[in-house]
User: What shape does this take?
Amino acid sequence: MIDGETERGERLRAWEDRALGAIAAGAPLKEVLEQIVCGIEDVLPQAIGSILLVDPDGVHLRHGAAPHLPPAFVAAIDGLASGPAVGSCGTAAYRRRAVIVTDIDSDPLWADYRELARASGLRACWSLPVRDVGGQVLATFAVYYRAPRAPRAGDLAQIRNLVHIVAVAVQVERKARLLQASEQRFRKVFADAVIGIAVADAQGRFLEANAAYCAIFGYTEVELQDSDLRTVIHPEDRATVQRFWDDLSAGRRDSYQTERRGFKKTGELVWVRISAAAQRDEAGRLVQVVAVAEDITAYKRTLEELRQNQALLRMASRINRLGAWAVELPSRTLVTSKALRQWLAVTRGGIRSLDQAIAVFAPEHQVMLRQAVEACAGTGESFDLTQQLVAADRRPMWVRILGEAVRDVDGRITRVQGTLQDVTQEREAQAQLRLLQAAVSHLNDIVLITEAEPIDEPGPRIVFVNDAFERHTGYTRAQALGKTPRLLQGPKTRRAELDRIRAAIERRRPVLAEVLNYTRDGKELWLELAVVPVNDDSGRCTHLVAIQRNVTERRQLEERLRGAERLEAVGQLTGGVAHDFNNLLTVILGNAELLHERLGEDPQLAESTAMIADAAQRGADLTQRLLAFARRQPLDPRPMDVRQLIQRMEGLLRRSLGEQVEICFQQDAKLWPALIDPGQLENALLNLAINARDAMPNGGRLTVETSNAYLDADYAVRHSELKPGEYVMVAVSDTGIGIRPEHLGRIFEPFFTTKPRGKGTGLGLAMVYGFVKQSGGHVNIYSELGQGTTVKIYLPRADRADPAAAVPTTSLRGSIGAEATPSQQDEVATGATRPRNDGRGGTETILLVEDDDLVRRYALDQLRALGYRVFEASDAAQALDILRQHAVIELLFTDVVMPGGTSGRQLAEAAVKLHPRLKVLFTSGYTENAIVHHGRLDPGVQLLAKPYRGVELGRRVRRVLDLEDGKRGA
Assistant: This one.
């Protein structure tokens, strides 16, 4: 069977190759389709193939190829319209998916065509639509059988292979027809064009010329082919045209346009405007030149006539509806038109002389006007002034005064005449426009005005942008004008929002939107915009005005806020889980310790209990990291000299990173002290160093840098929970592979890691983030692929009143051991130093308050084993009853988080009132805000963090009992 399938596959590929070869050779579509049908009939025994082509209307199906179907059947289905129940092919074309009919006699799709199929002896038909890349159905490919039949495994796959070839053949044939039609249209346009078009070879010899070109010069196309383009040019202009041609040949230019004289065949002079464009081969060599010639002889004659009448036209253009004036010389009599007198509301005798006319102008303008008139009368110098006058009705008006001299035949000036035009409204409009332009130019919002059309490609042109456009986008006004707003769009611009804007513009409705655009240098630019259509006096929309506000910073701030809220939610969940988890770990860890001590004589069992204890301790470390991220761990901040802390870590860093990594330290000699928990800072720095090492698998350089920093209010606004002020900056930089941009936004999330499976927990950076945030600081990360990563930690500066920072009393050596393995060093947790059991117990009386039964039983056994007398309670109410009944209780050992609404802290406060000398030791796996505020353990509070071992419990209880009365711990 396998060999048979292989043979069928080989035969099918042979038919595919044959069909593709025919397509490439330009064979007729029918011939190609028949080869494909024969191919499917060859590989599917008893199959009868058929291909129907979809008409351009997208509905009707036409015969394509079916060499072995009965001719009557082919003729009957030719022109069939597709639909929801039109046999197999019509339905497949309608549904745009395969239709498999295994028995035509019983299938409802063939209800209207069953008799036709029976008459042709057809009982089964499988039909697949043939679609182009856009999903449009081009044809259907069907196989018929003379008996009911369902597809076997692989049958449809083989048909689909040939369906792809059918799609290629149909599309190639359609493109060929379109190309042929396009060429025919071009030839018709060339022949019927009303302007002259000619094609010449690289030497300038005519290859073709249309009828319009021949008509300009009076030659036939055959006569032109015996000459070149330059023979029809006037001899005096041939040198200029030759220079242009030499530039085309040398590649110094690709086109030229000029207006030159030419000769018709009859010798008549003709003016032509010639536009020539070069066509070059792939090497840049000139192949041919296309020249367009336009007969401008009539235009040149008209231009000459216009030039002769220029003086008359200039004067006529200045005369308007307001009127004209003239001063006769040498009498200086003033003559005004009727329209001018009506405008000034004076009678014919009201203003008779030049002096009377000048007197109606504002005093500050009279001297300038008189000088202009006198100069025009003396030297013929014309003038154009805009000045203010007071009309007869006392209205102040701005007028434009045009004047020029009139000479007699001897050249003497006999008159000064001109026009006077009211420009008051224009002046007011210009003043308003200048005010508006000044206001718009000083706006921080972008103002962009475009034409209203075209909405489709290439889009409406920009006709105005204000200064804010240049500031926000980086494009100059010159670069924007004439372009479309699509200039600012980019890969992430949302198509749906653009479509919504377009729909509103098409309806000529205002629209509000928020769009992601891009600056000239490719940076993201979020714009909140309002687009308003502007109509002219006739109500036709002529322009679109867009007011755009740059909301990029707001969007970034919102994104950061969403990230902070997401981390806060994860932190709250983490803290709640850690409480219950630490209770379980306390029991597991403590009992594993007891078993290990009692089974010490059995090495195999002792090893098993050690494994349990180690696994529990790893769980405790993991929980501690989660609490660090959740900002729920108690911190012991103190003024620290960060330089000394880093110096003490140098040996550990060099051992942890190995010889392949070069370590550089850049310390600010005048570094401020930082208010920080030193042990947590050491853990954070080691985490960052280990991450940097893993990012440099082939070695590199790690740089630890410290400096003083001031984060201002503007920076604080962009970063939630950050207060402006003075900080100590610690930066850890590597030269590693960098972090992908899409990962940077999640890098501080717990359990998110870019390391391979098993190489990291994803809690290292989350712990660093939580510790720094809980300390009142700030952390930021910068990374570039292939360049490296820098993590900057900003620690709050210690109060100036604090004493000088002391050398740290805790170190990582006490937390993870001097010989920590790389896997242990990877994303180190902030575990507490494990104390040694000094073996001392006591006989004091202790009240144990713990709501978890297992933890309470474990702690009770441990304390009684050390000799203490112990009372136990499961909640605060029961504990207070015991305190009231017993006068001698020296230590209250209580959980912080308990049911019933009363916390361990509240219980301790009530207990101390009953027993003033009572000492208090708290325990918790999740402190909330009962004994920890602003990330710090409250002064005087003694806390044993869960999970704890028996030795830790005994040592801490003994230490608290031995405290002086003034430091009882409540």
User: Anything to note?
Assistant: The chain has 31 helices and 35 strands. Confidence is low (pLDDT under 50) at residues 310-314, 316-320, 801-839. The longest helix spans residues 552-598.
